[in-house]
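Quarterly update from the structural biology core.
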Amino acid sequence: MIAIDDYLHAATRENTRRSYRAAVKHFEEEWGGFLPATADNLVRYLARYAGVLAHNTLKQRVSALGQWHVEQGFPDPTRAPVVRKMMRGIQELHPAQEKRARPLQLDVLEQTVAWLEREHELARQQGRFVDLLRYSRDKALLLVGFWRGFRSDELARLEIERVEAVAGQGMRIHLPRTKTDRSLQGRTYLTPALSRLCPVAAYLDWLAASGLRSGPVLRGIDRWGRISEEAIHAASIIPLLRRLLHSAGVAEVHLYSAHSLRRGFASWASANGWEMRTLMEYVGWKNLNSASRYVDSPDPYHRAMLERLLPPAPASGR
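Predicted structure, tokenized:
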């Protein structure tokens, strides 16, 4: 029988639990605060780190501390008007431009996949089994991640039992829980097979090479070719992606992150005529603000639109 604590533990995402633990540790150990805290404690804590930590980080810390008080049965000091006013003041005096990952454009995806395919063939000829595994896994990660617009945590949580793939047709991917799925109903994503850069073929090739039949789809591979029983950690996907891009000859790889796959697909789809509602449904966004943050316009200065609206130049006199 599953214990009560197991159900309570399952109700919160692991990433959320980790961020809450980090927030409590920072408040108690690095700043020297005591829990339960008062609104005055929080104001002094925020004053200490305003301009030092990003505003979003401070918001996350305050949210985590508030959650700690609620779960422990104490009054939540983060709801005090003075704390909220402090947060608005910090945002006013320490504005910061949001840092966005560079979108992985389709030509960069093609360049990287072409490099993976060349290296895979070379590894096959030379009998380097470990490299064969890595190149197959990495190609599946890139193509499934791009064409489905998945975040790193979604890629890390893919399970073979929840993926149905048919060569030449498509694949059905079920995630029992996503970041925006507050009702915990899960979501099923459909992905077609493509004539090139195909995510379905890449996924099936990885299963064939690895021999995996159940459990996590994407896993670590050690130097001897042993495949881990555990899923690849979501945080490891960013350095993995950057290594792949660097090896393929892509410049400025430090500007890419796990969000680059989603931003790249969203920008590509938008530039090729997808309506925003269709794109939101495909990726799984719930509101327009979330979607618009990921879409880069091919004409960011709206030059083409403005040029069309300009009156014609007057004819020059002779």
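The CA atoms of residues 55 and 88 lie 10 Å apart.
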